[in-house]
Design brief:
CATH superfamily: AF0625-like
Helix content: 40-55%
Order of helices and strands: EEHEHEHHEHEHEHEHHHH
Structural class: alpha/beta
Distance between the termini: 24 Å
Shape: globular
Strand order of the largest sheet: 4-3-8-7-5-6
Number of domains: 1
Radius of gyration: 17 Å
Strand content: 15-25%
Number of helices: 11
């Protein structure tokens, strides 16, 4: 797996299949994985960022957005492809099921993770879902304690945290500090795409051409206008100015 520094963030060029294999490989230690796109890059390079100090704790940080892929290539790091969990979630589940791995889904409003788990079981009958839990449950420490306890009780080996940044990264690091023996994967809004009636996925041609942000903006203009109409320009400006994270 090739790695390079991208504004102080160690970016991993896993490719889709490489990340899937890394996730399902058994480990005796706690391992952390998260994604990097224009929005999370902006959060990491904000002054006083809550995310930046957490990123050095992650074993794999992969390029989720085409903007990051293009920017990394411009800086001489030839990233092979965009790695977006929503595009390969079912192949991941099939691989995890075939390898006998037990996964857990933690995130979203009450009922979201359960709905996602039900959908996944329908598509991948052999998939073992050890437990599900909502993503909003008290402080980071309280939720990390709860998730750590459920990992211990159920034997979950791959735990998906779908809570948004920086909450999911904070809980991931807290779980590592608690010494859980599992792979922790931060996945953002992934569960919403695989829970019927919650969120639709952009057409494949838009995803291939880096236009998924436009699709989401059209669907949710009030919520996402600032993130995309302003955030995309902030990303470009910071990349051109070589703004590093302040870990």
């Amino acid at each position: 797996m090739r790695r390079a520094s991208f504004h102080g963030i160690i970016l991993s060029d896993t490719g889709i299949q490489g990340l899937i294999q890394w996730l399902v490989t058994p480990s005796a230690e706690c391992r952390l994985a998260c994604y990097l796109n224009a929005h999370t890059f902006n959060l990491a390079t904000d002054k006083g960022s809550a995310t930046a100090p957490l990123l050095p704790m992650f074993d794999v940080i992969y390029p989720d957005g085409m903007a990051v892929v293009w920017a990394a290539r411009r800086k001489g790091f030839p990233v092979s492809e965009r790695v977006s969990a929503a595009d390969y979630f079912i192949p991941f589940c099939e691989t995890a099921a075939g390898a006998g791995r037990r996964i857990a889904l933690v995130g979203g409003a009450p009922g979201l993770a359960e709905g996602c788990a039900a959908e996944l079981r329908g598509r991948v009958p052999d998939l073992a879902v050890a437990f599900t839990a909502p993503g909003f449950g008290g402080s980071v420490a309280e939720q990390a304690d709860s998730v750590a306890r459920q990992i211990s009780e159920t034997g979950a080996e791959i735990v998906l945290l779908g809570m948004g940044t920086p909450r999911q990264e904070q809980i991931a690091v807290a779980l590592k500090e608690r010494g859980v023996r599992a792979t922790i994967w931060c996945v953002g809004a992934l569960f919403e795409y695989y829970t019927p009636g919650v969120r639709s996925h952009a057409p494949a041609w838009m995803r291939r051409n880096g236009l998924e942000w436009l699709y989401r903006l059209i669907l949710e203009p009030r919520r996402l206008a600032r993130r995309y109409l302003i955030g995309n320009f902030v990303f470009i400006w910071r990349v051109l100015r070589e703004v590093p994270i302040e870990a």
